[in-house]
Amino acid sequence: MSIRLLLADDHLMFRQGLKTLIEREAFDVVGEASDGREAVQLARALHPDVAVLDLAMPLLNGLDAAREITKVSTRTRTILLTMHTEDQYVMEALRAGVRGYVLKTQATSDLIQAIREASKGAIYLSPSISRSIVDVYLGKTDLPPISLTPRERQVLQLVAEGKTTKEVAVLLEISVKTAESHRTRLMEKLDIHETAGLVRYAIRAGLIQP
Fold it and tell me: How far is CA 93 from CA 66, 99, 138, 197, 206, in A?
């Protein structure tokens, strides 16, 4: 039976290119999303075998979308597409249960293999990813986790995208007071006390694009 896929990327041309590549392999693209929240909603409705997610998407980045998708569709394996090769990004993805980490610069050559591996429950990393990541995953060494909770990361992304506290509360379905509390806590954790600083941090963390 054909592997059923969900594609999520906010760049339409890139997403269409991926779809063409994937469908050449007789895979079935059952849904397309332009942001992380839409991807989660589609995964809940469609239960695809594999979800291919861009890391830097609006409203909800690919990593946090992957976390949510594994909750709403336990059978769905997730693959991240990204420009980031740094150890912290790859390790955080593995900790989140992501089954594939594919560099956008190598998507044409790597993505099909990543989909096949992920659909079988295996893990696929683009060949240029540091060998140290494999060692970390196997428990030979360790890297410190990113200090923010998934909820704080979501709040950080939305604030960096220019959303007000009230808008954050509506999008995350929490009270304004709770949203303000998350914002205050993450600013204290990061020792950043103005929105511009949060934007710069979110860009460095790969949550939004400059």
Answer: 9, 8, 14, 24, 12
Structural domains in the chain (count) = 2
Same-domain pairing of 48 and 69: yes
CATH number of the domain where residue 116 is located: 3.40.50.2300
- With respect to residue 144, please indicate whether it lies within any of the assigned structural domains: no
145 found inside a domain = no
| Structural domain includes residue 142 | no
Instruction: Give strand pairing partners of 102.
Output: 81
Which pTM does this prediction carry? 0.75
The crossing angle, in degrees rounded to 10, of helices 12-24 and 107-119 is: 60
Residue bearing tokens 């946090």: 64
Query: Whole domain around residue 47: which residue ranges?
Result: 4-137
Under 8 Å between Cβ of 82 and 90:
no
Of 90, 31, 38, 28, nearest to 61 by C-alpha is 38
Residue 76 burial (CB < 10 Å; 0-12/13-18/19+)?
A: buried
Of the residues 110, 137, 164, the one at which a domain ends: 137
Span 161-182, pLDDT tens digits: 888 989 999 988 899 999 999 8
Question: Whose CA is closest to 146, among 83, 76, 84?
Answer: 84
Residue 205 exposed, middle or buried by CB count within 10 Å (0-12, 13-18, 19+): buried
